[in-house]
Amino acid sequence: MIVAVDRSNMPQAAAVHSISWQDSHRAFCSPDFISLHTPERQQAYLEKKMAGGSAFYLLMEKEPLGIVSVTGNLIEDLYVLPDHHNQGYGTALLQFAIEKCTGIPTLWILENNVHAARLYRRMGFQETGKRNVVSGGLDEIEFALASPT
Question: Among 7, 42, 65, 109, which residue is least crowded by beta carbons within 10 Å?
Fold first, then answer.
């Protein structure tokens, strides 16, 4: 079940975002930077993005397992708790997010995120050629859902 994030489940959403973000960035961010991304900080991040028009969704089973946001046609913040990777939850969240998009779905990933790139390509996304420099020589790469032919 996928539900909208609101005040009633915001602490759960922030915890999922914090744990998943820390896990996904641990290989290339400093321990000090990782430790800054507490549930409290991530809750403030979610609240700020929601105030700016982003909609967040939480994938629930017996407990929350994943999160994603959609702003227009932009999909962001797709994270699944580390203990639940490779069980179809990321695919379910991505498919849900695609359906919420108002135009051609797009997203950005760090160039070293090979697992995410594999998922997005499998779901029909292609690199657009656009890149953003993040830091330390690491770039973000834009993907867009390919038009059906």
Answer: 7
